[in-house]
Specification:
heterotrimer; A mainly alpha; B mainly alpha; C mainly alpha; B: mainly alpha; globular; C: mainly alpha; 0% strand
Chain lengths: 103, 315, 169
């Protein structure tokens, strides 16, 4: 048991989190769960940035974290507003049911 | 062992002080309201009715702790714990005097904002898990109101942070050694106090539990000790917001003659009295008025305060 | 601190895994909150207190509350559990699971060959981050504010239909 966290272990946690989010997006057909899984993936990417920043002891990792946070907030605002619109046509929020265009 | 025992002693001291305070506030509020409404208030149990609190606690402990069969049991039980844990966690970074503080974190102010954003979940979870339409409406209102007012709370705080140059609450108090922040940050203080009332869901802004429209809002189905936790959580929230106002705008523990702890408690009790006076004197707005007031009045005011503070500091 | 890191990482992974496999949307959201709080602890152990607190304030305290708000508005309760055709059958999990496993395996190989360094435990506080944000990254901050404005306008437009909401948050 060494005193410090290894960089590889931190990145492993982040990539495992990313993989879980990916499985969520691929498996779930409910739009709400897909959005949620995308949030998990974004969070994993942000975590990788923070870990890398901590490895070199610089602030840049946390700066990128802040930008990802901003992007996630904007994405969720628009995504959930779209979700509310879609829920009027497709009450059970099935992603496959809104695959057609036109109309 | 002293290295381990000293923080534990601080934790015990702060927890004891804060929980005693919350219990005391139940009596304090009822007596003050009675005073302003030309009544006596609770004055039968013990000296000045002080033991009324003990009687209430005994009563609430022996009530039936009922979970509705239609509720989502796990979430229903979890909700009141969230508010207690979140509020008590925030007190970890509150310095009661220069010596008494559990963890004077470098991101203290942000930590309190984070914990107060966690208290949203208590109302929302309670409202959803009750599976009751009034509770659901109360939960929805709580979510919208608290997320919105947290924005104004955060922005109005930033003026103080700019002046002190630190998120550490101890540093912020030290920065007020000359002039208390309530003078240069008057606008920020007003916005913070209003947002604080909305965060704790106290009376002018208690729309999530408006008894005239929603029975009791998000805690309609709660009884016994679980209701008690919501109730105490609300008083703890009031104590926290008042302690923050004292620390950020009224010089914290600073004051002549008396020891720092006494000054801190006196100032906090005075601010809490203002909270109760608001309850005694103001009517409840409609929900759309509440949201419009926040986004159209408080947000511009908070931004203006931050802008002017930044200009003054930089020039 | 090291033990805390591994514990929090495990909790984050477990909670995320439970979140994507729940049928009940509200329970899934709660698991995501737990995952985010654990991620905040990970940041704290790595000496990034500012990121940790922002994670709680913005992610757990605002973004997920927005999700909760929508779930409550659509009233996706247990009895109205959305139709998930074949969610519980393992067949649907095989394809995505294999793909994700391959991706993860690649990442693991790359990381284990290069990531043997120890993370420096020095805390990078809010002061350094804000100096970087409003120093070399000031243009990116402006762009981020454009993005937020665009998101605000988009959400306000999409939400201004016949459905009335309590506020766009």
């Amino acid at each position: 048991m060494s005193g410090a966290v290894l960089l590889g272990h931190g990145l492993l946690v982040a990539s495992a989190l990313f993989a879980i989010g990916l499985v969520g997006v691929l498996v779930r057909r409910n739009l709400l769960f897909q959005l949620l899984s995308i949030e998990i993936m974004l969070n994993a990417a942000a975590m990788a940035f923070v870990i890398a920043g901590a490895r070199w002891g610089v602030a840049d990792g946390q700066v990128m974290f802040v930008f990802i946070l901003v992007m996630a907030a904007a994405e969720v605002a628009v995504g959930l507003a779209l979700l509310l619109r879609i829920s009027r046509r497709v009450p059970d929020l099935d992603g496959d049911a809104v695959s057609g265009m036109g109309g | 062992m002293t290295g381990l025992l000293a923080p534990l002693a601080d934790v015990a001291l702060v927890l004891g002080l804060v929980l005693t305070m919350a219990a005391f506030l139940i009596w304090y509020e009822r007596r003050l309201l009675a005073l302003w409404q030309d009544r006596y208030g609770p004055n039968r149990v013990g000296p000045f009715g002080l033991l009324q609190v003990v009687a209430d606690v005994i009563k609430i402990f022996f009530k039936e702790d009922w979970v509705p069969p239609f509720a989502d049991r796990t979430v229903f039980v979890l909700a009141p714990m969230v508010i207690m844990v979140a509020v008590l966690m925030s007190f970890a970074v509150v310095p009661i005097s220069p010596e008494i503080v559990v963890a004077d974190s470098s991101v203290g102010v942000l930590f309190i904002l984070a914990m107060s954003s966690m208290t949203v979940y208590a109302s929302v979870l309670g409202g959803w898990a009750s599976n009751n339409k009034y509770a659901l409406l109360g939960g929805l209102r709580a979510a919208a109101q608290m997320v919105s007012y947290e924005v104004f709370m955060g922005i109005s705080l930033m003026g103080v942070v700019v002046l002190a140059g630190s998120f550490r609450l101890g540093d912020i108090v030290e920065a007020q050694s000359g002039l208390w922040n309530c003078v240069p940050q008057f606008l920020g203080m007003l916005v913070f106090a209003v947002a604080g009332v909305a965060e704790t869901k106290r009376v002018p802004f208690d729309l999530p539990e408006a008894e005239a429209e929603l029975v009791a809002g998000y805690h309609t189905e709660y009884s016994g000790m679980k209701f008690g936790m919501f109730f105490v959580g609300e008083y703890l929230g009031v104590t926290l917001i008042s302690a923050l106002i004292v620390l950020l705008y009224f010089g914290g523990w600073r004051g002549p003659w008396l020891p720092p702890v006494v000054w801190f408690l006196l100032k906090t009790l005075a601010v809490i009295a203002v909270f109760f006076l608001l309850r005694a004197s103001l009517p409840r707005p409609r929900f759309d008025q509440l949201m419009a007031y926040g986004w159209k009045v408080l947000l511009p005011l908070a931004l203006l305060n931050l802008l002017v503070t930044g200009l003054v500091v930089l020039s | 601190m090291t033990v805390l890191f591994y514990l929090a990482g495990a909790v984050a992974l477990l909670a995320a895994g439970l979140a994507v496999s729940r049928r009940n949307a509200f329970h899934a959201l709660l698991y995501v909150v737990v995952s985010l709080l654990a991620a905040a602890v990970v940041f704290l152990t790595l000496g990034a207190p500012f990121a940790a607190v922002l994670e709680i304030i913005v992610y757990a305290g605002a973004i997920i509350v927005l999700f909760v708000f929508v779930v409550m508005m659509l009233n996706l309760g247990p009895e109205a559990a959305p139709r998930q055709h074949g969610l519980l059958s393992p067949a649907t999990w095989i394809g995505p699971g294999v793909l994700a496993a391959v991706l993860l395996a690649e990442l693991v190989v790359v990381i284990t060959t290069a990531g043997g360094d120890a993370v420096a435990g020095d805390a990078v506080g809010p002061r350094e981050v804000s100096h970087a944000l409003f120093g070399p990254y000031v243009l990116a901050v402006e762009l981020a504010s454009f993005l937020l404005l665009a998101g605000l306008v988009g959400a306000a437009y999409l939400g201004s239909g016949s459905r009335t909401t309590g506020g766009e948050g």
